[in-house]
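In full, the data:

***
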Amino acid sequence: MAVLVTGGAGYIGSHTAVALHEAGHDVVIVDNFANSSPRAVDAVRTLTAGELAFVEADLLDDGAVRGVFERYEISEVVHFAAHKAVAESVQEPSRYYRNNLGSLLGVLEAMLEHGVDKLVHSSSCTVYGQPAVLPVTESAPVGATSPYGWTKLMSEQIISDVCAVRPLAAIMLRYFNPVGAHGSGTLGEDPNDIPNNLVPLVMQVAGGRRERLPVFGDDYDTADGSGVRDYVHVVDLAEAHVAALEVLMAGHDGATAVNVGTGSGTSVLELIEAARRATDRPIPYEIVERRPGDIAKTWAATDLAREFLGWQAKRDIDDMMRDHWRWHSRHPDGYGRPDGRGR
């Protein structure tokens, strides 16, 4: 029996595939490389001694999805596959709704057809929109501010509705801000073109690819005026998926949403300083205008993760920056294309 990891060549999915293998699970990865590289699969196989099956398939292709379940003995699913750029989702909402919701529905239908009744789902703190109270608990009001966020919230609703009437149990992990990389420097974040997230941009400045980092606003109601977020190491996050799967295997039923973060916030300027310590390089930055829609601060309440999953983050912001820099310094162009000319 094996765990199916959809989107397993992506940033979080690849780290989770390794963590599942290390925990003793057989793993099957499915990915279409829309947001990832075949070299990520090679890297995962390097870390798992090659003991990993891979299928290249688009989850919008119902026949291809069923084929995976027919070919392999799947017992559980960890579902990552989704488009994930907030700004892009605003410009291309229909593509995001079709891909993110369509792929989930195809996976759910195949699971039910083949008697697979355990799902760990990749959700996001974007379902909270702009939180009014900190730290953010799982009972906080939900309401997204982008099509990407709405796809995550709608996905949770779909899963909850199915769990209510069919033999399916699910844990939906609401990530805060994943950063860092595998400690080996073999796996990491591989953004296409201009990164959407802060830390890859920071690393590109440290590595000399960019002249300076834009810091969007220094007049927020925070200690140093810059925005505050809850950054969580991607390996800690991967281990949260393993913990969630083990809770499901122990017999938990229904659908449960759980925050995954450190429970504390780090400001943009504090993160830049941590990156400077990790890289031992200057990281020039300039203050620019706030971006529309950005919030001042957010961080997770992590009591439920600790009590329900038996999980808590182990790695701090210095660990995150050190591991991210190790990955970036060895792979400044990400995984690159097989012909050696970049992706």
User: Anything to note?
Assistant: The CA atoms of residues 15 and 126 lie 21 Å apart. DSSP finds eleven helices and 13 strands in the chain. Residues 2-179+231-262+301-314 form a domain with the Rossmann fold fold (CATH 3.40.50.720).
